[in-house]
Design goal:
It is built from five helices and no strands. The protein starts with 8 loop residues before the first helix and ends with a helix.
Length: 71
């Protein structure tokens, strides 16, 4: 939820990328793709994320890293 709007799947990813400063040209191009197709891509990556990252588990952060993330 951001500014009283709910964002899911690819729309949420695009919002986060915009908030962290992704170039607007990329964001506008991505928004031209219909949401159903973007969400299909999102679901594909979500299903295959460990294969794509060549990992079997998520990374565990140290206590120091967690403190930095929380600040």
């Amino acid at each position: 939820i951001f500014r009283d709007a709910v964002f899911t799947k690819s729309a949420a990813v695009l919002l986060v990328l915009e908030l962290v400063g992704m170039p607007r040209l990329f964001l506008h191009a991505a928004k031209l793709v219909p949401p159903k197709i973007r969400d299909y891509g999102y679901d594909f990556i979500a299903r295959h994320r460990y294969k794509l990252a060549q990992r079997k588990t998520c990374r565990k952060y140290s206590e120091e890293e967690m403190r930095k993330l929380i600040q």
